[in-house]
Specification:
Structural class: mainly alpha
Number of strands: 4
Order of helices and strands: HHHHHEEHHHEEHHHHHHHHHHH
CATH class: Mainly Alpha
Largest sheet: 2 strands, antiparallel
Radius of gyration: 22 Å
CATH superfamily: Amino acid/polyamine transporter I
Strand order of the largest sheet: 1-2
Strand content: under 5%
Distance between the termini: 18 Å
Length: about 500
Protein backbone atom coordinates (compact mmCIF):
# COMPACT_ATOMS: atom_id res chain seq x y z
CA UNK A 1 0.00 0.00 0.00
CA UNK A 2 1.38 3.39 -0.98
CA UNK A 3 2.03 5.82 1.83
CA UNK A 4 2.64 9.55 1.98
CA UNK A 5 4.67 9.34 5.18
CA UNK A 6 7.88 11.36 5.24
CA UNK A 7 11.09 11.11 7.24
CA UNK A 8 11.29 13.15 10.43
CA UNK A 9 14.28 15.45 10.72
CA UNK A 10 15.58 14.72 14.23
CA UNK A 11 19.33 14.24 13.80
CA UNK A 12 21.26 17.31 14.92
CA UNK A 13 25.02 17.93 14.78
CA UNK A 14 25.80 15.88 17.90
CA UNK A 15 23.67 12.96 16.69
CA UNK A 16 25.21 13.09 13.21
CA UNK A 17 28.76 13.22 14.56
CA UNK A 18 28.00 10.29 16.87
CA UNK A 19 26.84 8.27 13.84
CA UNK A 20 30.13 9.03 12.06
CA UNK A 21 32.29 8.17 15.07
CA UNK A 22 30.17 5.24 16.21
CA UNK A 23 30.06 3.62 12.77
CA UNK A 24 33.84 3.92 12.39
CA UNK A 25 35.00 2.62 15.77
CA UNK A 26 34.25 -1.08 16.09
CA UNK A 27 36.85 -3.68 16.97
CA UNK A 28 39.37 -2.92 14.19
CA UNK A 29 41.58 -0.53 16.14
CA UNK A 30 42.11 -3.23 18.77
CA UNK A 31 43.07 -5.95 16.24
CA UNK A 32 44.36 -4.92 12.80
CA UNK A 33 47.65 -3.38 13.98
CA UNK A 34 48.98 -6.94 14.32
CA UNK A 35 48.62 -7.63 10.60
CA UNK A 36 50.03 -4.19 9.72
CA UNK A 37 53.03 -4.89 11.98
CA UNK A 38 53.67 -8.22 10.24
CA UNK A 39 53.48 -6.51 6.84
CA UNK A 40 55.62 -3.45 7.66
CA UNK A 41 57.95 -4.64 10.42
CA UNK A 42 58.79 -1.36 12.16
CA UNK A 43 56.98 1.11 14.43
CA UNK A 44 57.48 4.05 12.09
CA UNK A 45 55.80 2.21 9.23
CA UNK A 46 53.03 0.95 11.50
CA UNK A 47 52.19 4.56 12.34
CA UNK A 48 52.62 5.57 8.69
CA UNK A 49 49.99 3.03 7.59
CA UNK A 50 47.48 4.52 10.02
CA UNK A 51 48.48 8.11 9.17
CA UNK A 52 48.11 7.70 5.39
CA UNK A 53 44.79 5.88 5.81
CA UNK A 54 43.65 8.67 8.12
CA UNK A 55 44.60 11.45 5.72
CA UNK A 56 42.83 9.65 2.85
CA UNK A 57 39.75 9.17 5.03
CA UNK A 58 39.54 12.84 6.07
CA UNK A 59 40.08 14.09 2.51
CA UNK A 60 37.36 11.74 1.27
CA UNK A 61 34.97 12.92 3.97
CA UNK A 62 35.63 16.59 3.16
CA UNK A 63 34.98 15.87 -0.52
CA UNK A 64 31.70 14.11 0.29
CA UNK A 65 30.62 17.21 2.19
CA UNK A 66 29.98 19.08 -1.06
CA UNK A 67 27.84 16.26 -2.44
CA UNK A 68 25.92 16.03 0.84
CA UNK A 69 25.18 19.74 0.73
CA UNK A 70 23.99 19.52 -2.88
CA UNK A 71 21.80 16.44 -2.41
CA UNK A 72 20.61 16.13 1.21
CA UNK A 73 18.36 13.14 0.51
CA UNK A 74 17.97 9.66 1.97
CA UNK A 75 20.41 7.24 0.37
CA UNK A 76 23.44 9.51 0.38
CA UNK A 77 26.25 7.97 -1.64
CA UNK A 78 23.79 5.93 -3.72
CA UNK A 79 22.07 9.20 -4.77
CA UNK A 80 25.41 10.90 -5.55
CA UNK A 81 26.43 8.08 -7.89
CA UNK A 82 23.03 8.06 -9.60
CA UNK A 83 23.09 11.80 -10.22
CA UNK A 84 26.75 11.95 -11.29
CA UNK A 85 26.62 8.90 -13.57
CA UNK A 86 23.53 6.74 -14.11
CA UNK A 87 21.20 4.32 -12.32
CA UNK A 88 23.38 1.28 -13.19
CA UNK A 89 26.44 2.64 -11.35
CA UNK A 90 24.25 3.56 -8.38
CA UNK A 91 22.64 0.10 -8.40
CA UNK A 92 26.03 -1.62 -8.42
CA UNK A 93 26.93 0.32 -5.29
CA UNK A 94 23.61 -0.48 -3.61
CA UNK A 95 23.87 -4.13 -4.69
CA UNK A 96 27.37 -4.50 -3.24
CA UNK A 97 26.37 -2.59 -0.11
CA UNK A 98 23.43 -4.88 0.56
CA UNK A 99 25.00 -8.22 -0.38
CA UNK A 100 28.36 -7.71 1.29
CA UNK A 101 29.58 -4.31 2.47
CA UNK A 102 26.91 -3.25 4.96
CA UNK A 103 25.41 -6.62 5.86
CA UNK A 104 28.79 -8.38 5.95
CA UNK A 105 30.14 -5.70 8.26
CA UNK A 106 27.05 -5.95 10.46
CA UNK A 107 27.55 -9.73 10.67
CA UNK A 108 31.27 -9.45 11.43
CA UNK A 109 30.73 -6.78 14.09
CA UNK A 110 27.91 -8.79 15.66
CA UNK A 111 30.10 -11.89 15.88
CA UNK A 112 32.91 -9.79 17.40
CA UNK A 113 30.37 -8.60 20.01
CA UNK A 114 29.43 -12.23 20.69
CA UNK A 115 33.04 -13.43 20.95
CA UNK A 116 33.89 -10.84 23.57
CA UNK A 117 30.63 -11.56 25.39
CA UNK A 118 31.96 -15.12 25.70
CA UNK A 119 34.96 -13.79 27.63
CA UNK A 120 32.51 -12.90 30.39
CA UNK A 121 30.11 -15.81 29.75
CA UNK A 122 32.10 -18.79 28.37
CA UNK A 123 28.91 -20.80 27.78
CA UNK A 124 28.12 -18.43 24.89
CA UNK A 125 31.33 -19.10 22.96
CA UNK A 126 31.96 -20.08 19.34
CA UNK A 127 33.07 -23.56 20.45
CA UNK A 128 29.62 -24.31 21.90
CA UNK A 129 27.96 -25.95 18.86
CA UNK A 130 24.16 -26.16 19.05
CA UNK A 131 23.48 -27.46 15.54
CA UNK A 132 25.67 -28.32 12.53
CA UNK A 133 24.18 -28.77 9.07
CA UNK A 134 27.36 -28.26 7.04
CA UNK A 135 26.72 -24.94 5.30
CA UNK A 136 24.94 -23.56 8.36
CA UNK A 137 26.51 -24.10 11.75
CA UNK A 138 24.68 -22.75 14.78
CA UNK A 139 26.91 -21.96 17.72
CA UNK A 140 26.06 -20.12 20.91
CA UNK A 141 28.16 -17.14 19.75
CA UNK A 142 26.29 -16.92 16.45
CA UNK A 143 22.96 -17.01 18.28
CA UNK A 144 24.15 -14.11 20.44
CA UNK A 145 25.31 -12.26 17.30
CA UNK A 146 21.95 -12.72 15.57
CA UNK A 147 20.09 -11.75 18.75
CA UNK A 148 22.05 -8.47 18.88
CA UNK A 149 21.15 -7.74 15.23
CA UNK A 150 17.46 -8.51 15.88
CA UNK A 151 17.43 -6.35 19.02
CA UNK A 152 19.00 -3.34 17.33
CA UNK A 153 16.75 -3.75 14.29
CA UNK A 154 13.69 -3.83 16.56
CA UNK A 155 14.84 -0.66 18.35
CA UNK A 156 15.36 1.15 15.06
CA UNK A 157 12.00 -0.03 13.67
CA UNK A 158 10.31 1.76 16.56
CA UNK A 159 11.51 5.13 15.33
CA UNK A 160 14.56 7.30 14.85
CA UNK A 161 14.45 8.57 18.43
CA UNK A 162 15.33 5.20 19.98
CA UNK A 163 18.10 4.49 17.49
CA UNK A 164 19.51 7.97 18.03
CA UNK A 165 19.59 7.57 21.81
CA UNK A 166 21.33 4.16 21.58
CA UNK A 167 23.87 5.61 19.17
CA UNK A 168 24.68 8.63 21.30
CA UNK A 169 24.96 6.70 24.59
CA UNK A 170 27.13 3.86 23.28
CA UNK A 171 29.31 6.07 21.08
CA UNK A 172 29.98 8.51 23.91
CA UNK A 173 30.74 5.63 26.29
CA UNK A 174 33.19 3.90 23.97
CA UNK A 175 34.86 7.13 22.88
CA UNK A 176 35.51 8.09 26.50
CA UNK A 177 36.75 4.57 27.21
CA UNK A 178 39.16 4.64 24.26
CA UNK A 179 40.35 8.11 25.29
CA UNK A 180 40.93 6.81 28.82
CA UNK A 181 42.82 3.74 27.61
CA UNK A 182 44.97 5.79 25.24
CA UNK A 183 45.57 8.40 27.95
CA UNK A 184 46.78 5.76 30.40
CA UNK A 185 48.97 4.21 27.72
CA UNK A 186 50.59 7.56 26.96
CA UNK A 187 50.80 8.90 30.50
CA UNK A 188 51.88 5.93 32.60
CA UNK A 189 52.09 2.99 30.22
CA UNK A 190 55.66 2.65 29.05
CA UNK A 191 57.89 -0.40 29.07
CA UNK A 192 61.69 -0.09 28.78
CA UNK A 193 62.00 -3.28 26.70
CA UNK A 194 59.36 -2.07 24.22
CA UNK A 195 60.91 1.40 23.97
CA UNK A 196 64.39 0.00 23.40
CA UNK A 197 63.20 -2.41 20.72
CA UNK A 198 60.96 0.05 18.89
CA UNK A 199 62.96 3.26 19.03
CA UNK A 200 66.32 1.58 18.44
CA UNK A 201 65.30 0.92 14.81
CA UNK A 202 62.19 3.03 14.31
CA UNK A 203 62.07 2.79 10.51
CA UNK A 204 62.96 -0.88 10.17
CA UNK A 205 60.94 -2.34 7.28
CA UNK A 206 60.31 -6.01 6.63
CA UNK A 207 57.39 -8.27 5.67
CA UNK A 208 57.04 -11.27 7.96
CA UNK A 209 55.31 -14.08 6.08
CA UNK A 210 53.42 -16.56 8.23
CA UNK A 211 51.76 -19.89 7.48
CA UNK A 212 49.73 -21.82 10.08
CA UNK A 213 51.18 -19.77 12.90
CA UNK A 214 54.82 -20.30 11.85
CA UNK A 215 57.14 -17.67 10.32
CA UNK A 216 58.10 -18.90 6.84
CA UNK A 217 60.24 -15.94 5.78
CA UNK A 218 61.13 -12.34 6.61
CA UNK A 219 61.42 -10.17 3.50
CA UNK A 220 63.45 -6.91 3.80
CA UNK A 221 61.62 -3.97 2.26
CA UNK A 222 62.99 -1.00 0.31
CA UNK A 223 62.05 1.11 -2.68
CA UNK A 224 59.00 -0.01 -4.66
CA UNK A 225 58.64 -3.14 -2.52
CA UNK A 226 58.30 -0.91 0.55
CA UNK A 227 55.64 1.25 -1.11
CA UNK A 228 53.80 -1.86 -2.25
CA UNK A 229 53.83 -3.32 1.25
CA UNK A 230 52.59 -0.01 2.67
CA UNK A 231 49.63 -0.10 0.30
CA UNK A 232 48.89 -3.72 1.15
CA UNK A 233 49.12 -3.02 4.89
CA UNK A 234 46.46 -0.33 4.58
CA UNK A 235 43.70 -2.88 3.97
CA UNK A 236 43.37 -3.07 7.76
CA UNK A 237 43.74 0.61 8.59
CA UNK A 238 41.38 1.68 5.79
CA UNK A 239 38.75 -0.85 6.79
CA UNK A 240 39.00 0.19 10.45
CA UNK A 241 38.52 3.79 9.27
CA UNK A 242 35.56 2.97 7.02
CA UNK A 243 31.80 3.54 7.39
CA UNK A 244 32.11 7.31 7.91
CA UNK A 245 29.91 7.74 4.82
CA UNK A 246 26.95 6.20 6.68
CA UNK A 247 25.79 9.62 7.85
CA UNK A 248 25.08 10.55 4.22
CA UNK A 249 22.57 7.68 4.04
CA UNK A 250 20.42 9.38 6.71
CA UNK A 251 20.37 12.83 5.08
CA UNK A 252 16.57 12.81 4.90
CA UNK A 253 16.43 12.83 8.72
CA UNK A 254 19.13 15.40 9.48
CA UNK A 255 18.25 18.89 10.68
CA UNK A 256 19.82 21.49 8.36
CA UNK A 257 21.60 18.73 6.38
CA UNK A 258 23.41 21.12 4.06
CA UNK A 259 25.39 22.40 7.05
CA UNK A 260 25.19 19.53 9.52
CA UNK A 261 26.40 16.64 7.36
CA UNK A 262 29.62 18.25 6.05
CA UNK A 263 30.48 19.45 9.55
CA UNK A 264 29.75 16.09 11.17
CA UNK A 265 31.91 14.35 8.56
CA UNK A 266 34.85 16.63 9.34
CA UNK A 267 34.45 16.43 13.12
CA UNK A 268 33.77 12.69 13.21
CA UNK A 269 36.55 11.50 10.90
CA UNK A 270 39.06 13.93 12.40
CA UNK A 271 38.31 12.68 15.92
CA UNK A 272 38.59 9.00 15.01
CA UNK A 273 41.77 9.38 12.96
CA UNK A 274 43.44 11.21 15.87
CA UNK A 275 42.30 8.53 18.34
CA UNK A 276 43.61 5.75 16.09
CA UNK A 277 47.02 7.38 15.77
CA UNK A 278 47.30 7.98 19.51
CA UNK A 279 46.20 4.40 20.24
CA UNK A 280 49.04 3.08 18.09
CA UNK A 281 51.53 5.42 19.74
CA UNK A 282 50.39 3.92 23.05
CA UNK A 283 50.81 0.41 21.63
CA UNK A 284 54.45 0.98 20.66
CA UNK A 285 55.22 2.45 24.09
CA UNK A 286 53.84 -0.68 25.73
CA UNK A 287 54.80 -3.51 23.36
CA UNK A 288 57.64 -4.25 20.93
CA UNK A 289 56.40 -4.31 17.36
CA UNK A 290 58.33 -7.45 16.45
CA UNK A 291 57.71 -10.70 18.23
CA UNK A 292 57.74 -14.47 18.08
CA UNK A 293 54.61 -16.59 17.62
CA UNK A 294 53.95 -18.84 20.59
CA UNK A 295 56.16 -16.84 22.98
CA UNK A 296 55.35 -17.27 26.65
CA UNK A 297 54.28 -13.68 27.38
CA UNK A 298 52.80 -10.62 25.70
CA UNK A 299 56.19 -8.91 25.39
CA UNK A 300 57.65 -11.91 23.60
CA UNK A 301 54.76 -12.09 21.14
CA UNK A 302 54.88 -8.34 20.54
CA UNK A 303 52.34 -6.52 18.40
CA UNK A 304 52.98 -8.82 15.43
CA UNK A 305 51.87 -11.96 17.23
CA UNK A 306 49.50 -10.77 19.92
CA UNK A 307 47.19 -13.65 20.83
CA UNK A 308 44.42 -13.86 18.20
CA UNK A 309 45.76 -10.48 16.95
CA UNK A 310 44.19 -8.81 20.00
CA UNK A 311 46.71 -6.00 20.30
CA UNK A 312 44.34 -3.94 22.46
CA UNK A 313 44.11 -6.74 25.04
CA UNK A 314 47.90 -7.20 25.01
CA UNK A 315 48.45 -3.47 25.56
CA UNK A 316 45.85 -3.34 28.32
CA UNK A 317 47.58 -6.29 30.02
CA UNK A 318 50.71 -4.15 30.33
CA UNK A 319 48.64 -1.51 32.17
CA UNK A 320 46.08 -3.49 34.18
CA UNK A 321 47.60 -6.97 34.43
CA UNK A 322 45.26 -9.97 34.67
CA UNK A 323 41.96 -7.98 34.65
CA UNK A 324 42.82 -6.59 31.20
CA UNK A 325 40.94 -9.30 29.32
CA UNK A 326 37.70 -8.51 31.12
CA UNK A 327 38.18 -4.73 30.82
CA UNK A 328 38.83 -4.95 27.09
CA UNK A 329 35.98 -7.42 26.59
CA UNK A 330 33.53 -4.93 28.10
CA UNK A 331 35.00 -2.06 26.06
CA UNK A 332 34.78 -3.99 22.79
CA UNK A 333 31.24 -5.17 23.59
CA UNK A 334 30.18 -1.54 24.06
CA UNK A 335 32.13 -0.50 20.96
CA UNK A 336 30.72 -3.16 18.64
CA UNK A 337 27.14 -2.80 19.90
CA UNK A 338 27.20 0.94 19.24
CA UNK A 339 28.94 0.44 15.89
CA UNK A 340 26.27 -1.97 14.69
CA UNK A 341 23.47 0.33 15.75
CA UNK A 342 24.85 3.02 13.44
CA UNK A 343 25.34 0.55 10.57
CA UNK A 344 21.83 -0.88 10.95
CA UNK A 345 20.20 2.52 11.27
CA UNK A 346 21.95 3.99 8.22
CA UNK A 347 22.09 1.05 5.81
CA UNK A 348 18.33 0.65 5.52
CA UNK A 349 18.04 4.18 4.12
CA UNK A 350 20.01 3.16 1.01
CA UNK A 351 17.69 0.24 0.29
CA UNK A 352 14.78 2.66 0.80
CA UNK A 353 16.23 4.98 -1.87
CA UNK A 354 16.82 2.04 -4.21
CA UNK A 355 13.25 0.84 -3.76
CA UNK A 356 11.94 4.32 -4.56
CA UNK A 357 13.86 3.99 -7.85
CA UNK A 358 12.22 0.56 -8.38
CA UNK A 359 15.60 -1.15 -7.97
CA UNK A 360 14.85 -3.03 -4.74
CA UNK A 361 11.89 -4.77 -3.11
CA UNK A 362 8.92 -2.39 -3.26
CA UNK A 363 8.04 -2.64 0.45
CA UNK A 364 11.51 -1.39 1.35
CA UNK A 365 10.55 1.95 -0.21
CA UNK A 366 7.82 2.62 2.36
CA UNK A 367 8.02 4.16 5.80
CA UNK A 368 6.20 2.55 8.73
CA UNK A 369 4.05 4.34 11.32
CA UNK A 370 7.21 5.53 13.09
CA UNK A 371 8.47 7.19 9.87
CA UNK A 372 11.37 4.76 9.37
CA UNK A 373 11.92 2.17 6.58
CA UNK A 374 10.78 -0.80 8.64
CA UNK A 375 10.71 -3.35 5.81
CA UNK A 376 14.20 -2.36 4.65
CA UNK A 377 15.47 -2.82 8.21
CA UNK A 378 13.98 -6.33 8.34
CA UNK A 379 15.43 -7.42 4.97
CA UNK A 380 18.85 -6.15 6.05
CA UNK A 381 18.61 -8.01 9.38
CA UNK A 382 17.60 -11.28 7.70
CA UNK A 383 20.51 -11.24 5.24
CA UNK A 384 23.07 -10.19 7.88
CA UNK A 385 21.82 -13.00 10.15
CA UNK A 386 22.21 -15.55 7.35
CA UNK A 387 25.79 -14.35 6.85
CA UNK A 388 26.36 -14.89 10.58
CA UNK A 389 25.20 -18.50 10.24
CA UNK A 390 27.29 -19.27 7.15
CA UNK A 391 30.43 -17.85 8.74
CA UNK A 392 31.48 -16.38 5.36
CA UNK A 393 31.31 -12.73 6.43
CA UNK A 394 35.03 -12.38 7.22
CA UNK A 395 36.04 -13.73 3.78
CA UNK A 396 33.49 -11.48 2.10
CA UNK A 397 34.84 -8.43 3.89
CA UNK A 398 38.36 -9.27 2.75
CA UNK A 399 37.05 -9.35 -0.81
CA UNK A 400 35.17 -6.05 -0.76
CA UNK A 401 37.82 -3.59 0.43
CA UNK A 402 38.83 -3.23 -3.23
CA UNK A 403 35.19 -2.64 -4.23
CA UNK A 404 34.80 -0.09 -1.43
CA UNK A 405 37.80 1.84 -2.75
CA UNK A 406 36.40 1.80 -6.31
CA UNK A 407 33.10 3.31 -5.19
CA UNK A 408 34.86 5.94 -3.09
CA UNK A 409 36.96 6.89 -6.12
CA UNK A 410 33.87 7.07 -8.36
CA UNK A 411 32.02 9.21 -5.81
CA UNK A 412 34.82 11.74 -5.38
CA UNK A 413 35.27 11.79 -9.16
CA UNK A 414 31.55 12.63 -9.25
CA UNK A 415 32.50 16.04 -7.82
CA UNK A 416 34.29 16.85 -11.08
CA UNK A 417 31.42 15.46 -13.18
CA UNK A 418 28.78 17.50 -11.34
CA UNK A 419 30.87 20.68 -11.36
CA UNK A 420 30.79 20.37 -15.16
CA UNK A 421 27.22 19.14 -15.70
CA UNK A 422 25.55 21.20 -12.96
CA UNK A 423 27.67 24.33 -12.58
CA UNK A 424 24.78 26.39 -11.22
CA UNK A 425 23.61 23.89 -8.57
CA UNK A 426 23.44 25.15 -5.00
CA UNK A 427 26.62 24.21 -3.11
CA UNK A 428 26.38 25.40 0.51
CA UNK A 429 29.74 23.75 1.15
CA UNK A 430 32.49 23.39 -1.44
CA UNK A 431 35.04 20.59 -1.26
CA UNK A 432 38.23 21.61 0.56
CA UNK A 433 41.10 22.32 -1.84
CA UNK A 434 39.13 21.58 -5.00
CA UNK A 435 40.34 20.49 -7.53
CA UNK A 436 43.79 19.56 -6.16
CA UNK A 437 42.85 17.82 -2.91
CA UNK A 438 40.02 15.65 -4.34
CA UNK A 439 42.30 14.77 -7.28
CA UNK A 440 45.02 13.68 -4.85
CA UNK A 441 42.44 11.49 -3.10
CA UNK A 442 41.52 9.81 -6.39
CA UNK A 443 45.19 9.24 -7.27
CA UNK A 444 46.07 7.86 -3.83
CA UNK A 445 43.04 5.57 -3.63
CA UNK A 446 43.61 4.36 -7.19
CA UNK A 447 47.27 3.61 -6.42
CA UNK A 448 46.23 1.54 -3.40
CA UNK A 449 43.59 -0.28 -5.47
CA UNK A 450 46.15 -1.20 -8.17
CA UNK A 451 48.61 -2.22 -5.47
CA UNK A 452 46.02 -4.56 -3.97
CA UNK A 453 45.24 -6.04 -7.39
CA UNK A 454 48.92 -6.96 -7.73
CA UNK A 455 49.83 -7.97 -4.17
CA UNK A 456 46.53 -9.42 -2.91
CA UNK A 457 44.82 -10.83 -6.02
CA UNK A 458 43.13 -13.56 -3.98
CA UNK A 459 41.03 -10.86 -2.31
CA UNK A 460 40.66 -8.17 -4.97
CA UNK A 461 39.52 -10.10 -8.05
CA UNK A 462 36.66 -11.88 -6.24
CA UNK A 463 35.59 -8.50 -4.90
CA UNK A 464 35.48 -7.08 -8.40
CA UNK A 465 33.52 -10.15 -9.46
CA UNK A 466 30.92 -9.51 -6.75
CA UNK A 467 30.40 -5.98 -8.09
CA UNK A 468 30.15 -7.10 -11.72
CA UNK A 469 27.65 -9.80 -10.77
CA UNK A 470 25.29 -6.92 -10.13
CA UNK A 471 25.23 -5.99 -13.84
CA UNK A 472 23.02 -8.90 -15.00
CA UNK A 473 20.98 -8.55 -11.80
CA UNK A 474 20.31 -4.89 -12.70
CA UNK A 475 19.08 -5.73 -16.20
CA UNK A 476 16.98 -8.65 -14.98
CA UNK A 477 15.44 -6.44 -12.29
CA UNK A 478 14.69 -3.53 -14.62
CA UNK A 479 13.25 -5.91 -17.24
CA UNK A 480 10.98 -7.54 -14.66
CA UNK A 481 9.86 -4.16 -13.36
CA UNK A 482 9.25 -2.95 -16.90
CA UNK A 483 7.16 -6.00 -17.68
CA UNK A 484 5.21 -5.51 -14.49
CA UNK A 485 4.52 -1.89 -15.29
CA UNK A 486 3.39 -2.80 -18.85
CA UNK A 487 1.07 -5.47 -17.48
CA UNK A 488 -0.43 -3.00 -15.06
CA UNK A 489 -1.02 -0.48 -17.86
CA UNK A 490 -2.61 -3.18 -20.06
CA UNK A 491 -4.98 -4.15 -17.26
Amino acid sequence: MQTDREFKRELRLLDSTMIVIGSMIGSGIFIVSADIARTMGGPGWLLMSWLVAGVITVIGALSYGELAGMMPRAGGQYVYLREAYNPLVAFLYGWTLFTVIQTGTIAAVAVAFAKFTAVLLPGLGEDVVLFDAGLFKVTAARVVAIASIVLLTAINRRGLHGGRIVQNVFTLAKTLAVVGLVGLGLAIGRHPQALAANFGDFWHASWTHVSQGVITSVEPLAGLALLGALGASMVGSLFASDAWNNITFTAGEVVEPKRTIPLSLALGTGTVVLLYLLANVAYIRLLPVQGVPGAADVLGRGIQFATSDRVGVAAATMIFGAPAAVIMAVLIMVSTFGCNNGLILAGARVYYAMARDRLFFANAGQLNRKAVPGAALVVQAVWASLLCLTGTYSNLLDYVIFAVLIFYILTVAGLFVLRRTRPDAERPYRAFGYPVVPALYILAAAAIAVDLLILKPTYTWPGLGLVLLGVPVYFLWTRRKGAGASGARGA
